[in-house]
Amino acid sequence: xxxxxxxxxxxxxxxxxxxxxxxxxxxxxxxxxxxxxxxxxxxxxxxxxxxxxxxxxxxxxxxxxxxxxxxxxxxxxxxxxxxxxxxxxxxxxxxxxxxxxxxxxxxxxxxxxxxxxxxxxxxxxxxxxxxxxxxxxxxxxxxxxxxxxxxxxxxxxxxxxxxxxxxxxxxxxxxxxxxxxxxxxxxxxxxxxxxxxxxxxxxxxxxxxxxxxxxxxxxxxxxxxxxxxxxxxxxxxxxxxxxxxxxxxxxxxxxxxxxxxxxxxxxxxxxxxxxxxxxxxxxxxxxxxxxxxxxxxxxxxxxxxxxxxxxxxxxxxxxxxxxxxxxxxxxxxxxxxxxxxxxxxxxxxxxxxxxxxxxxxxxxxxxxxxxxxxxxxxxxxxxxxxxxxxxxxxxxxxxxxxxxxxxxxxxxxxxxxxxxxxxxxxxxxxxxxxxxxxxxxxxxxxxxxxxxxxxxxxxxxxxxxxxxxxxxxxxxxxxxxxxxxxxxxxxxxxxxxxxxxxxxxxxxxxxxxxxxxxxxxxxxxxxxxxxxxxxxxxxxxxxxxxxxxxxxxxxxxxxxxxxxxxxxxxxxxxxxxxxxxxxxxxxxxxxxxxxxxxxxxxxxxxxxxxxxxxxxxxxxxxxxxxxxxxxxxxxxxxxxxxxxx
Length: 645
What we know:
40% helix, disordered N terminus, alpha/beta, 11% strand, 26 helices, eight-stranded mixed β-sheet
């Protein structure tokens, strides 16, 4: 009997340790709105000693992406372990019903015995039980400023998140920055006059406001780093560091204009540092030449799967992410990037990012990157300064692009164009460019493969994500129509229940619309008669993109002014406005503003404003018909018309 007890002690050392967890703790330290402006990522102007030290003790990922360039969409991706458009969570600050089968990572860890705390941002786009999801809905034990792993039971493993807003774009205002005089560096990290042109991005003009914003931002990054140091010291003092795997990352890129909200690396590439304590280093991947650098592609959709795999938990079948850490870790060939509505502005964009290339599909090429977003114009002096320089003709061609309509496709060779300034797709020789466009149009119609163009594999990967069985990209359904189609279920369930042929038609027409010309008129006219409201929506969008030259589409667009779907009416009306039909279409748009659901109303308000900004209808005329009070985000459109001219 004594011998049996001794064997138990020898072969079950965890019994001797008693209170020591058999699984690692997970600590996520997160900041907001910052690209890798850190010393450990090679930024010579950054003063970030604590994160630099963390990187020296751990692994530094150089190809980490937030999946989306805005907080709520990125955080919705993280909390669900699924790409936000799969569930319909791609529009900023929305509230969308999701299937009961969705598994939130705090639930998974909680069921495995972990104490799960969030300190303290949630910002999820799901609707649960008819209201926007809160922290209890997703499984946290505690959330808020007092939520802390020290409140767990003795010996209980933890999963804890701590978040700071010190690097958020809103922290550059006079009020926010000036209100921190006691904590700001005694001397500027980078005084405005000393901000080098290497910091002022080539897409920004050199103005005093832009220099001041960059200067303040480096101070804010220093304060953020100091806060990270406090979290790390607290972990050490708790005695839990030796059993805790630490992640540091930001929620997306930023924060100055053309960072946050944009699909390029300046909006989606994030710092990711992971430190493994000695006890768990056998789970760490091998870095490049033992430098601590990992060049593997990872995205937010992968983070929950990676954490679960590290802790020995079964990854839910519904999750879309790949576990890039732990046993049987998996690598990906590309990451899928997405954006939808940001505040009051619609702009549907999807992208495929490989290690060396960025392929972008702009489904709203008639809108500029730099739409009149009221919030950044309010909090970033650099936004207004850049816009004024553009209007005054003081911006060069690269700086002016932000304020102009785009092409439907962008393609960048990021190895030598890290800021994505030179669109290799449009810089092809003329005949090759036209041949490529024609091959892509054939692909849309015939689903045949093209080859030899460098970006064709990315086009096929993007098409595959749009069509993926069981994970179709619901972002191709306009937001107002989404609310109608999901009245009795969820948009995820609705879209994935559609016949394959119907969803293929939606994707094909949407892809065609993004690069539509007058040569596509016959196909677009046929699609305007589709039984699918989503197909009709994209056919009308194609007419808007094709422009005035596609006069043969007028009759079809006029028919769509009485379409049962208000979203279809809105885009048809805007397209007809470019054909001189303002008297016919203004009452249609105003009626949708009044009578449509909140998202249809917003789309109509955007269309009215766009007609004024494009010079199609005098802005005074737009002001005279635009309702003074509009529900939801529509109020910001009215504000923009008055304040951003």
